[in-house]
Amino acid sequence: MENKIKGIEEILLMGPGPSLTHPRVYSALSRPTLGHLDPYFIQIMDDIKAMLQKVFQTNNNLTIPMSGTGSAGMETVFVNLIEKGDPVLILINGAFGKRMLDIAQRLGADADSMDFKWGTPVTTDEVEAQLKKKKYKIVAMVHAETSTGVCNPAEEVGKLVKEHGALYILDTVTSLGGMEVAVDKWHVDAIYSGTQKCLSCPPGLSPVSFSDRAVDVIMNRETKVPNWYLDVSMIANYWAGKKRAYHHTAPINMLYGLYEALAVVLEEGLENVYDRHQRMHEKLVTGLEELGIKMVVDKQFRLPMLNSIWIPEGIDDAEGRRALRYDHHIEIGGGLGDFAGKVWRIGLMGNTAREEHVDRLLKALAAIKKK
Ligand SMILES: *Cc1c(COP(=O)(O)O)cnc(C)c1O
Known about the structure:
With 371 residues, this protein is of the alpha/beta class.
């Protein structure tokens, strides 16, 4: 049998994730595996927590990476905060908002949702009206809706949720490390992200953070968290305190990868990182317009790191993406849900958001349009 791993070739990842892994992260992943209670490894864990606090812009003590991808982070915040019958409001304008609703329903929440048109943002007036109508324990929203490329007003919704006394859950899987995410300033009570989008790390970990208020709610639950693996009250005993207790074997080398990824982001500086994503986005949009390719989302609501375009006329969805993958060694994303077959999604996440990558994609798009 031929070794398939040896046959892997490098593909320029410009889809909705994973993004290109940073070379320093690849090196970190291959460092020697230590024991999960090794004293040196515990120092590494402490540094990861401190760096995550910086990237999330929070003083929250309970700021840790969960083992699992972004969806595990989503499940973590819901499973720890929701008890059966809790009134929960989910604001939905894409596939990931729908996933939140699915999880809340599986947990037996009294889950209401507000649906906003795909490709447009959540509007605060309507949210405010709903919050006046009914008292919720939790309001949840996606900051950067990866299925459409829309940025939702995370800070404004945070203000409303705080005024109405609910807990605020925010999904920042795609936004963290690519645009401002300010947990404390935005009054977020539970937040999660992923490693494989703007953090330039392979998929496998999900950073989460809980406010003191959220921790209080978790510690005073009437029922046990129904999911053993994701119960943060138990996991916290591994990530904090003098005497660390085994919960599950941490994915040691993935954590080295996250450590290095966070170091790379903080060395560049958060403002510089956000600025680079914005500049690459503007360069891409200019180039697409020159090719006559149209953006799906109105200018003021666009995400820098996820660009939805209408599939250029005369190009077949699958055939176009196949040509990009095989003739040009570039991956982009297809449309999800309402946008399947109509939209392509171009990611400019983390290490992918570089000038030479934007140039290469624009050249390739020009070539397939000509054919
Ligand atoms: C990618 C993504 C997720 C899910 O993350 P996985 O790593 O695929 O499990 C959740 N929310 C948003 C907004 C995402 O972009």
